[in-house]
Amino acid sequence: MIDIRSPHLTGAEVAWFAPICSDDYEFLGVPENKYKSNFDHTSEILLAADKLGFRNILCPSSYQVGQDTWTFASAVAPQTENINLLAAIRCGEVYPPMLARAIASLDHVLQGRLTINIISSNMPGENLDSPSRYQRSRECIEILKQAWTQDYIDFEGEYYKVKLDNTDPVKPYQQNGGPLLYFGGYSPHGKDLCAEHCDVYLMWPDTEENLLGHMKDLSERAAGYGRKIDFGLRVHMIVRETEEEARAAAQRLVSKLDDDFGNEIRNRALDAKTLGVSLQAAARERADSEGYTEPNLWTGIGRARSGCGAALVGSPEQIIAKIERYKEMGIRAFIFSGYPHLEECKLFGKYVMPHLETLSLPVAQGRVPAQMPDTPLGAGLRK
Fold first, then answer.
1. Which of 42, 156, 175, 353 is the most buried (most CB within 10 A)?
2. Exposed, middle or buried: residue 89 (CB in 10 Å: 0-12, 13-18, 19+)?
3. How many whole angstroms separate alpha carbon 106 and alpha carbon 89?
4. pTM of the predicted protein model
């Protein structure tokens, strides 16, 4: 049985994707200057998603290409109105007490509309094994939580030894434990970290049967810590007025793809050899001759993308039905994207968003206080 944290929620957090890591194309694997990652282009996508009613947006992280996540999120935050930002952080990259302060500061600028995507990959030049990477992340999260809920930090672990007495750091705007922590990872050590410390377990696209297997596993692990977690799905989107038009758009997207260059794009990511990426490759291998591994789930995007490698393809009615099915399974958060991201965002906003009940998970979980904390950093900054 899947025991989720929020069975009472009838809606879901519907999010989009900000391609700050040079991941925007008209034709997959064919770079064009007009889709190049820069602040103007990517912030336009984010602000469009805000106006269309999306409740969150993933700001990813990469060492190889694109913009710095935290700089981008901090710069765009004052321009937003309602949307949450899901900012990716790489545990181990920034000294945890400083990271805790940076997160709390941005949370004030956003007035509680900040969520955090926990990443545990190796740094460039590192080759830590899975247990070591996730242990470092565990220690980082435990320090963050001390900084957000106490007036001191007293921590001793394998990677960090921190003792800060009588400190007066900025506490997060979200007073009930700080921003929600979203986590994606498939190894046993990663799943255990999520079960112990995180709030939303993010999955990449797979068959419903396989998704349910991961959800059951995480529910059981979380129960072992006396906790419950919510579940999310990160998947691409191709929606058109008819299924035929959507399938044609999917084929057009990969019509100019050079598979050797696609492999190069996939392999440049630091997570290219992780278990999660191998599971996406296995899904492509199980797909039919057109790349579909189950009705309306197309794996062609994985030919030129590490990580999330499949899309929901279909008419508005088919896409809505699929999302409702996922919600019935217990999924409470969705992170969608499409190519080109601005155009597909608008199509999804036109055809699907009006038919979905959406919500903000931080608000649903009581993370945002009824009144602004004393001396907020973000007062007067929002447009």
1. 42
2. buried
3. 13
4. 0.92
166 Ramachandran zone, left/alpha/beta (phi>0; psi -120 to 50): left
CB burial readout 192-222, b (16+ within 10 A) else e: bbbbbbbbbbbbbbbeeebbeebbebbbebb
